[in-house]
Design a protein that fits this description.
This protein has about 375 residues and is an alpha/beta fold. It contains twelve helices and twelve strands. Strands 10-9-8-7-6-5-12-11 form an eight-stranded parallel beta sheet.
Length: about 375
């Protein structure tokens, strides 16, 4: 591997977007129109398996603008500050909550609880009322060790739920699938977003379908197939390895006509990662802003949270899941995918109000 420079924004501070920017003032806007500015950078230089990290103030970047590290990463710095396209028309301020609606008998957290379309629709409406901006409908369990779900079975699970929710809520509806056939049917049923854990690599037709849909698309990193992904996962450097993977998938999407401004990246917490890998990713979430897309964090109720908090039952991991969501929000992630919407939305509202000194939008 040749030498490569990565930039992770650090020193995030609340931004006041009501005032026009007047040149460089010691901070730069993270994601252009987001709620944070950043005051420094972690400069990561990788040559093969060798990785060096150092933290610098933005002033040093300006004072040493001709140094090779900064020249090599000039495009990354531009992407860090580039204004993001609104996700489905939603406002760019704050962290959006995506509520999980699993219509499967074997999901790791709530398998079987929403096995009927009626139960799943009712649950989706409940999550919408609790503050979910996006409802993510999934009909195939991709927990570690799971087997693939046949296309017809997955369609029978998700289509009635999409159709039932589409007529009863104005919240964005996302389809969580890696199958082109499910994507096509879900698009016809009125979904607003596609979410593929394989980053459009599992099904040869998925990339074409996604490109032609005109919808926002979440592309996630997973190490191999769900059946085997937790069998001794290894990385040279988990943060930059996954960054490089997602960068390559973005390039494949762009080559197929799927523009970067329609993409959302997800580093794939728990998908082919050890406890230590997950923690390193959580600590380095800001790195993925350098890809120039919104970032989604899906850590809710996962095993690593149970390991840290001592909660073996996924449904008891609410407090730990909220902690993970707040850690993501503190690094500027634009979406958190969660099971416990009401609790997470309340925590995020309090977090954002405390940082900004202003009531959240929609508060009395």
């Amino acid at each position: 591997m040749s030498r490569k420079v990565y930039l992770r924004p650090i020193g995030l501070v609340p931004a006041d977007r009501s005032k026009p920017a007047e040149g460089y003032s010691g901070t730069l806007p993270l994601a252009g129109n987001g709620p944070f500015d950043f005051t420094g950078l972690e400069v990561i230089v990788r040559s093969g398996a060798s990785v060096a990290r150092r933290q610098v103030a933005l002033a040093e970047v300006w004072e040493n603008a001709t140094r090779s590290d900064y020249l090599e990463a000039d495009e990354v710095l531009e992407r860090l500050t580039r204004q993001r396209r609104r996700i489905g028309g939603l406002p760019p301020s704050g962290t959006l909550v995506m509520g999980v609606v699993n219509v499967t008998p074997d999901s790791f957290s709530d398998g079987g609880r929403l096995a009927s379309a009626e139960a799943a629709i009712a649950h989706g409406l409940k999550l919408a009322a609790e503050g979910a901006a996006i409802l993510d409908i999934g009909g195939e369990s991709t927990r570690p060790g799971s087997d693939p779900t046949p296309l017809r079975v997955e369609l029978d699970r998700v289509l009635p739920v999409i159709e039932g929710l589409r007529s009863r809520t104005d919240r964005l509806i996302s389809i969580d699938t890696r199958k082109a056939g499910v994507m096509r049917a879900a698009i016809a049923a009125g979904v607003d977003m596609l979410n593929d854990i394989s980053a459009l690599s599992h099904d040869p037709e998925a990339l074409e379908v996604a490109a032609g849909s005109g919808l926002p698309v979440v592309i996630m990193h997973a190490l191999g197939d769900p059946k085997t992904m937790q069998v001794d996962p290894r990385y040279d450097d988990v943060q930059t390895d996954i960054y490089d993977y997602l960068e390559a998938r973005i390039a494949a999407c762009e080559a197929a006509g799927l523009r970067r401004d329609r993409l959302i990246v997800d580093p794939g917490i728990g998908f082919g990662k050890t406890l230590q890998h997950n923690l390193e990713l959580m600590a380095g979430l800001g790195l993925f802003h350098g890809l120039g897309t919104p970032v989604l964090l899906g850590a809710s109720r996962k095993r690593f949270i149970g390991t840290i908090t001592g909660e073996s039952e996924p449904s008891a991991r609410v407090a730990g899941s909220i902690g993970a969501a707040l850690a993501g929000a503190a690094q500027g992630v634009q979406i958190v995918r969660v099971h416990d919407v009401r609790e997470t939305r309340a925590a995020l509202d309090m977090f954002e109000a405390s940082l900004s000194g202003r009531l959240p939008q929609g508060s009395a």
